[in-house]
Design brief:
412 residues; alpha/beta; FAD/NAD(P)-binding domain; Polyamine Oxidase, Chain A, domain 2; seven-stranded mixed β-sheet; binds flavin-adenine dinucleotide
Length: 412
Amino acid sequence: MQDVDVVIIGAGSAGLAAAKTVRAAGLSFTVLEAMGRIGGRAWTSSEAFGVPFDIGCAWLHAADRNPYYAEAQAAGWTLHHHDMNVDHLYFGKRKATEEEEDATRRADADLCRLMENWSGTDDRVSSLLAAGHVARAAATFAGPMDFGKDYDEISIEDFRAAADLDPNYFSSEGLGALVAQFGADVPVELSTPVRKILWDVPGVACVTDRGTIRARAAIVTASPAVLAFEEIAFSPALPDAHIEAFFDLPMGMLTKLPVEIRGTRLGLSPFDDLLIERPARHDIYFLCFPFDIDLMVGFVGGDFAWELSAAGEAAGVDFVVDRLCGIFGNDVRKHVGRAMMTNWGGERFVRGAYAAARPGKAAARRVLAEPVAERIWFAGEHLAGPLIQTCGGARLSGETVARQVVQSLSPR
Ligand SMILES: Cc1cc2nc3c(=O)[nH]c(=O)nc-3n(C[C@H](O)[C@H](O)[C@H](O)COP(=O)(O)OP(=O)(O)OC[C@H]3O[C@@H](n4cnc5c(N)ncnc54)[C@H](O)[C@@H]3O)c2cc1C
């Protein structure tokens, strides 16, 4: 591995975009990736179901500002416009009444308005939540299914800094496949975790098991959780404010539980949204039969998603099938085929779904946006401004930071 101008740590959406930007500016670079593949949290696989399935990101959010959307269109991919509205709402096994569905929509609008106007001292979304199961159902999307956190762990300030992600599209080929295509021409050193970054040397030196590589600057795209767990050591230590910021941006969790349902559509239409509200936030959302394939894709988020991860895939799949039987009858069991559960919490080099600021700590994102000694820069979904938590946002963050690095390395 040769010494370069810029070393980029991570070949996810942010790292690949940073590499392309650095290359376009004529600087030399190396991308070091811990996993044996590119894409990071963008990963489409046909292994489980014989059709492309996104283990990580799937929706092309904010399509009007998302560069991946234009590329999917140009490539002639099969795209479906899908904004989430709850088409079918259940409280446990009971179907919500029309009045309850209307009340849930109103509660959702109320919550958005309260967050917009908030100027109090209690920065937790839960502080704005009216009592009752209807209000809770309205907040399930905003909380566990969207932010990957329960609402008492979400900062209002952080939440409202995030953009409305409409319009949303879904592709049958997979967002992970699109990111892989985007990064296909970027040379990446795979299976090369960076263990340590020295910055008391000229520039930086990145220590890996395959040797040490020197560069004038580093762009670090690993998640804040990976950094909080000190998967990458820094010598000398980073400033305290940066270290605190890693801990103030813990990862939320979103777990997918796709289950094959063969020979019936259960009276549902492709792309219907079905939400089952349950006690103690053990809620589950289903994206029903996307592109009319035989899959009900379950989603659980927040603390419950961590709990199910700990219980394991068999428990997770049983949980989903039991919920479906509870609503559609035990006959469903005869139609169940293959199933799986994603495990982003157990992925050492990610450790969760995406970052969300602790209540009162929304400023942590601004701290990490500051480079250290003009040599160590951070990028990724957690630093994507209004498009935080999204794959398109991660790419834009990688591009923005790479442009700043190029400028900082240019002769003045
Ligand atoms: C279940 C799930 C569903 C999601 N759904 C959506 C969605 O529908 N739409 C959407 O837009 N977004 C979604 N997201 C979020 C989206 O996937 C991420 O925001 C985005 O992919 C993050 O890109 P990134 O480059 O910032 O980070 P990553 O993809 O995590 O890339 C960072 C890379 O750094 C590598 N790395 C870490 N440590 C080291 C090290 N020490 N040395 C070398 N390499 C290292 C990692 O292996 C990884 O490849 C979802 C995420 C999950 C988990």
